[in-house]
Structures are given as structure tokens and as C-alpha cells.
Amino acid sequence: MTEPLVECVPNFSEGRNRAAIDRITSAIEAVDGVTLLDVDPGAATNRTVVTFVGPPDAVVEAAVAAGVTAADVIDMGAHHGEHPRFGAMDVCPLVPVSGITMEETMGLAREVGSRLGDAGLTVFLYEKAASAEHHRNLADVRAGEYEGLEDKLRDRAWQPDFGPATFNPRSGATAVGARDFLIAYNVNLNTTSTRRANAVAFDVREKGRVERDAAGGIVRDPAGEPVWIPGSLPSVKAIGLYIEEYGIAQISMNLTDISVTPIHAAFDEAAAMAAARGMRVTGSEIVGLIPLQAMLDAGRHYLRKQQRSTGVADTELIKIAVRSMGLDELGPFDPAQKIIEYRLAPTDGARLVDRTVRGFVEETASESVAPGGGSVAALAGALGAGLGTMVANLSAHKRGWDDRWEEFSDWAERGKGLHQRLLALVDQDTDAFNGILAAHRLPAATPAEVAARMAAIEAATRRAIEVPLAVMETAVASFEVLTAMAEQGMTSSVSDAGVGAIMARAAARGAALNVRVNAAGLDGADAYLEQASSLEIEAAGGEAAVMAIVGRRMAEAP
Question: In which band, very low, low, confident or very high, does the pLDDT at 1 lie, cut at 50, 70 and 90?
């Protein structure tokens, strides 16, 4: 079962005083289990967006510590900035990442709000944790901002959920909520006009703009409420801002559901609306972090527009996304720092797939028992599938085959999925072997401990069989790509498809040896052995079929 992981993205009304920002982030980092992912201060907005993740209890502790510290080091009475705000810790959203439901995350938000209230802060719950429907939208909660907060707190409809209902001129108020993953995204314009930037923001944001009559008056419905003209992008909030430190105006957007409006769609639409108003989008920036999938989807989107294969490496997809959306215009875009999965990935070199080729070979050749044949078999399979993917990508770009780019792109996508799966199995095989060693080291001083140890050994052994079986299954699946590329790919690369088939067969044969050695003496091993034998026969047939095609096409080549 996946360990529960929660992200917290508090925004603080301080973007210029580094000492104050450091006090807040130090309070977060002092909590065991929390990983501080990003600190993004803005001088013009006078606002810092902080991102951290961790298990639920640790995230609650860190959020409370950050809120209390912010109230101590930030004086809202002296705050000025371009971004809407009403408190020292202005907003504190919690986001479920893995192993935890939205309902549970809502409970965490209420716990954070309650504890901040006990510490003397005025707290409103918003988004999915809101206690009332009119508190759900952050823009409504924060309407009037800090300057209007004192009057707002006198309104019975705007009593806080926790803490004092009286105005605290130093700390203001805090909105605590639970929400889905949100991307804070700014699009840069070649203008300094906030009014024109707002015009584009109103064009694209879901809420749109108030309808006006020919004389400029507000059009109202029969109930006297303003009539709104919706914008073009659902699940998008946006305003226009002038950013003095860059000397440009931006469309500042919150993409609240990237499954509805992904980042590339927001960029393209903003560019189109800006162009219609005589402006040009020059680039964009992501505030905080972004999920890997959003960047990969963007890269594929722009490659498709160029009619190029999308089955390229993730690094290439990310590079295309960065260039296409100008994410590096205002500063470097470092995927290792800006993409959440990369920030959470181990950086200690523990994973075999992160080694250099030399490092992997030398580790294999060392006196350690792992990595061994299982990991090498998985790597062989990854190389085989990788060669099939290469032939597909090259064929997609072959001169004269422009009308076939999508066909080969689909094959490249299939091949990429297979070699990525096999690369993951490289480390999983070593992990499975280490699991057997760990099980054998368990204590066995009592009958209960002996039984527990035997059960652990059996479970670990089964895992050490299932991983090489997965290698075999994936290697066999790669023959579909290799066969298609041997038959349909560009002639000059047909030999590469042949080498890929040889590597895929080697992966299956090598993994089969691991199945046999681990299945020896295991109850119910016959089913594993039969499956391995069947897959080995399929691999032999797959290699033979590919090599026959390769031989024929090489003989036919001029």
C-alpha cells in the first residue's frame, strides 16, 4: 500500500525580506518527515509561494508552524504588493498526492485551521474544506483584501471558522483549504499595460467579465445581479498584473484542474487572445512545482503540432515544452527543481538506472551479489525495446514519409512504454533479491518468529520470481514493435530492429533462469515454471520472425 503523502503550498505575504522568508521555511524544515520542495519569492508581488510534502501528521505540524512564524515575522500593516492578499500566511492549501483521499485531506485542513485559530489567527476554510458554499471560492473569501478585512469581519456572513472574529492588523486572516493539484502559471506579454493584460485575463478565465451595454453600463439580470460573459477556459482563474522587476505585464493564472485545462492549452489560448488584441506572448513561468505528466503532455502537444513523433525520451518532451511555452524566458527552468516527481526522486545514486553505463557495468562486476543476472536481463530487454523505438522515431521523420508520421509515432509510444517498464524492473529485481536476504535475517528464536520468518521468506521468494516473469512478459510484448519496425521501418535501420530482437530474446532467456533458480523447492512452483517456459518459446519465435524479415529486407536492399 502506498504511504500517504500530502503536499502543502502556503503563500506568504512577504517576497522581499529574505530573513523573514528563511524564518518561515526553517520552521517548516524543522519538522521531521517534511521535504521542502520549492521556495519561490516575488519582489513585485511581495509574496512567496512555498511547496513542501510529507506524511499527513508532519504536514499538519509544518503548516501550523509556518503560519505561527509568519504571523510573528510579517506585519500586514506595512505590506504592499501586486497580488491580492489579506493575511501574513495568506492561503494554505493542502493537496492529496498519494495514498490519501480528498475527504481525509479535508480533515487535515480543518485540523490545521483549528490549531492556527487556537494560536490566535483568524482562519477561513475554503475550496473543498469550506464550511459554507459562499466560502468555497478563494476570490470571494479574500474579496476586499487586507484593507477591507476589518469591515468584512463585522458581517455575520463572513465570520471565520476558527480564531478571533476581530481584526488583527498585524496578521490579518488566513484561508486554509483542501484542493486538487493547482498550477500557478504566469504568461508574459510584450506590454506594460495592466489594463490590457486584464483584458486577456478576462477573455480566458472561466468567470469571464461583466457584460456591459453600449454606454458602458453594467448589464443586470431580473434579480439585479450583474450578467457575466464566461471566458474560454474552464477551471482557470486569472488576473492581469504589471511586474516591475521584469518590466512587463503578465496574465497570472491558477489552473485549478489540469485534466480540464492543461498548461499548454492555457498558454495557446492566452497567446491567441493576446494576438487578437495586438499583443504577443513572449514566454511564461511556473510558480512552484508542476507534475511530470503535465510537462510530458505539453511536449507531446507541441510535437503533434509539428507532425513529429511523440515517442521520444521524457527529457526531450520536457525540453520541447520548455521551449514552446518559453518557460525559461525570465529565468532557467530546471526540471530537477520544478517537476514534483523529480524533486521527490532519490538523489543518492541508489537506483541502478541512474548510474552511468560504466557505473552500472562496474557495479555488476564488483564483489556485491546484486545487481546480478536479473537486473542485466531487464536492461537487455530495455535496450531491445529501445532499439525498436528508435527505428519508429527515425521512420517518422524520414523524408517522403510525412503522411506516415502518426503511424510511426504510435509505434514509438508503444516502444517507449515497454522500455520504461523494463528499466523500472532493473531496480525491482535487485530490490526483490535484497528482500530475500532481509527475510533470511529475521529473528527465529521462538515458534512465532520462526513462522513469521518462513512466511516472509516465501513472500520474498515469490516476489523474486514475479519480477523476472514481468521482464519476460514485457520483453515478449516488445516483439510486436520490433516486428512492425523490421517490416515497415526505414530500410537503413532494419538491422537495428534485428539487434533489438536479439536483445529481447536474451532478456527472456536470462529472466527465465532467474525464475528457475528462485522457484526451486517452492510449493506451487510448477505454475511459475510453465509460464516461464511458454514465454521463452514465444521469445524464440519472436526473434526468429524478426530475423527472417531482417534477412529478407537486407537482401532486397539496393
Answer: very low
Cell 482557470 belongs to which residue?
Answer: 236
* CATH number for the domain that contains residue 397: 1.20.120.680
Count the helix, strand and coil residues of the chain and give each as a percent rounded to the nearest 5.
55, 15, 30
Other C-beta atoms closer than 10 Å to the C-beta of 1 total 4
Measuring CA to CA, which residue among 369, 14, 371, 397 is closest to residue 170?
14
Strands (E), 99-133: 122-127
Which among 203, 268, 297, 429 is annotated as catalytic?
429
Same domain, 357 and 490: yes
User: Is 268 a known active-site residue?
Assistant: no
pLDDT for 349 equals: 65
CB atoms within 10 A of CB 44: 18
C-alpha span between 82 and 95 (Å, rounded): 26
C-alpha cell at 151: 469591515
* 3-state SS track over 440-461: HCCCCCCHHHHHHHHHHHHHHH
* AA letter at 509: R
Radius of gyration of the chain from its Cα atoms, rounded to whole angstroms: 29
Task: Look up residue 328 and give its three cell numbers.
Answer: 525559461
Specify the number of domains making up the chain: 3
Amino acid at site 222: P
C-alpha cell, 304: 503533434
- Out of 79, 83, 264, 419, pick the active-site residue: 83
Please name which of 421, 363, 359, 418 lies closest in space to residue 387, comparing C-alpha atoms: 418
Find the mean pLDDT for residues 443-465: 95
83 belongs to the catalytic site: yes
Cβ-contact 54, 6 below 8 angstroms: yes
Q: Which amino acid, one-letter code, is at 84?
A: P
Q: Tell me the CATH number at 323.
A: 3.30.70.670
- When pLDDT is averaged across residues 83-94 and rounded to a whole number, the result is 95
Distance CA 265, CA 274 (A): 14
Strand (E) or helix (H) holding 182: none
What pTM, to 2 d.p., does this model score? 0.80
For residue range 349-400, list pLDDT tens digits in order.
678 999 999 999 999 999 888 789 999 999 999 999 999 999 999 999 999 9
Residues 479 and 357 in one domain: yes
pLDDT tens for each residue of 229-244: 999 999 999 999 999 8
Can you tell me whether residue 54 is helix, strand or coil?
strand
Cell numbers linked to 65: 508552524
Residue 257 sits in which domain range?
183-344
Torsion angle in degrees (nearest 10) through CA of 277, 282, 286, 291: 90
CA-to-CA distance for 437 and 440, rounded, in angstroms? 5
